[in-house]
Design brief:
Layout (H helix, E strand, L loop, with lengths): L1 H9 L1 H4 L17 E8 L2 E10 H13 L5 E4 L5 E4 L1 H7 L1 H10 L6 E4 L5 H13 L4 H17 L3 H15 L5 H10 L3 H13 L1 H4 L3 H9 L1 H47 L23 H13 L9 H16 L11 H8 L4 H21 L7
Parallel strand pairs: 3-5
Antiparallel strand pairs: 1-2, 3-4
Organism: Carya illinoinensis
Pfam family, one: zf-TAZ
Keywords: Metal-binding, Ubl conjugation pathway
Length: 377
């Protein structure tokens, strides 16, 4: 104990605790490993998948050198690609079935892929080995790769082709061709994106060579696109019409609020009909109040106040009647003629009653959508 006390008092160790720096944790570097976050259905998973570049290079060499290849792939213009049945069968269930049928015939197994450039087939087979591709090759052969991935059921490559098309390879020049491929290759998301692009840029796209070729080869598809365009235009017109209606109903509702405000609270910016507004007058918080004040001023001094005699007075009579239909208690209401209109409503025709009832319902429904109503049922 004595020695420990002397050390703690006389040595630097006693006055300051020295902690050694921890060595760096061992881990893969970006130069020797591919590190990617695990994904499933678009959601992140805990953990990482680290694939060594040496492993990637090994699969690339196996494909490039064709070491002990046991199957050939015949392509356009006499091209031959050497591959391995085990890898092709595991990567593509379609190729697995084709190879199984050839097994036992006592001859070199061979798969024929015609109608697609040799280089595109080579990029496709390379992807089956290492799931890798060059950017330039994807840009050049993306349509061929989409067809091959669909025909041989390689969903990873198919998703990658769709993603690349969505992120920039889709243009107005090729959108018609890609739209037809999306329909043939069962790619609904890609088809929807192409359809939306065609609808938004119809005039420019309908002048492209792809559109003219589609007219000749698939006239029914052109008809469907034209029908979709008409439907979209009608839907847009209907949407604009409903927006305009809603705006009108909101304006009527705001006018009803301003009318109650004027008659119940007494707006500070309204006065006798022969009095002008002051320049420094604070504006009313009700947006429709100023316009309604001008209408009230006119109504108070008009010589042709009878309904039908003056268009402005007629509008005022309609607003007063609309208020009476919205008002829930005319006995205590401060708006002029509210009770009189309540009595008049009872004597109206059935047709007139239905017209006003529909208007009131639409006004209240519109206000309920945008906010709590000032009036209630």
């Amino acid at each position: 104990m004595g020695k420990m006390d002397s050390i703690s008092e006389g040595s630097p160790l006693g006055s300051e605790k020295i902690v050694p720096v921890a060595p760096p944790l061992p881990g893969p570097t970006t130069s020797s490993y591919y590190q990617k976050e695990l994904m499933m259905n678009g959601s992140n998973l805990s953990g990482y998948s680290c694939v060594s570049t040496a492993t990637i290079d090994l699969w690339e060499r196996l494909f490039d050198e064709g070491y002990r290849a046991d199957v050939t792939i015949d392509t356009e213009n006499g091209g031959i690609i050497y591959a391995h049945t085990n890898i092709l069968g595991m990567a593509s269930p379609v190729m697995k079935g084709m190879l199984k049928k050839m097994k036992g015939h006592g001859r070199q197994q061979s798969i024929s892929i015609r109608g697609i450039p040799n280089d595109a087939v080579r990029v496709f087979i390379r992807f089956l080995y290492s799931s890798c591709y060059e950017k330039e090759e994807m840009e050049e052969f993306v349509l061929h790769l989409l067809v091959l991935s669909h025909a041989f059921v390689v969903p990873q490559l198919k998703q990658e082709c769709v993603r690349q098309l969505e992120q920039g390879l889709l243009t107005m020049e090729n959108v018609i061709d890609i739209f037809q491929l999306a329909l043939l290759c069962d790619a609904p998301r890609l088809g929807f994106i192409c359809h939306r692009m065609i609808m938004r840029n119809f005039i420019a796209i309908s002048a492209t060579e792809g559109w003219q070729a589609m007219k000749q080869s698939h006239p029914f598809l052109e008809k469907e696109l034209l029908e979709s365009l008409i439907y979209e235009e009608n839907r847009q017109k209907e949407r604009i019409r409903k927006l305009n209606e809603r705006r009108i109903y909101l304006q009527l509702y705001e006018a009803m609020e301003a009318l109650v405000h004027i008659c119940r609270d007494g707006c500070q910016t309204i006065g006798p009909h022969d009095k002008d507004f002051k320049g420094n007058q604070v504006p009313c918080r009700y947006a429709a109040c100023k316009g309604l004040e001008l209408l009230v001023r006119h109504f108070a001094g008009c010589k042709l106040r009878v309904p039908g005699g003056c268009i402005h007075c007629k509008r005022m009579w309609q607003l007063l009647e609309l208020h009476s239909r919205l008002c829930t208690n005319s006995n205590v209401c401060g708006v002029p003629l509210c009770r009189n209109f309540k009595e008049r409503i009872r004597r109206q025709s059935k047709k007139e009653e239905i017209k006003w009832t529909l208007l009131v319902e639409k006004i209240l429904r519109t206000k309920t959508i945008t906010g709590a109503p000032f009036f209630s049922w």
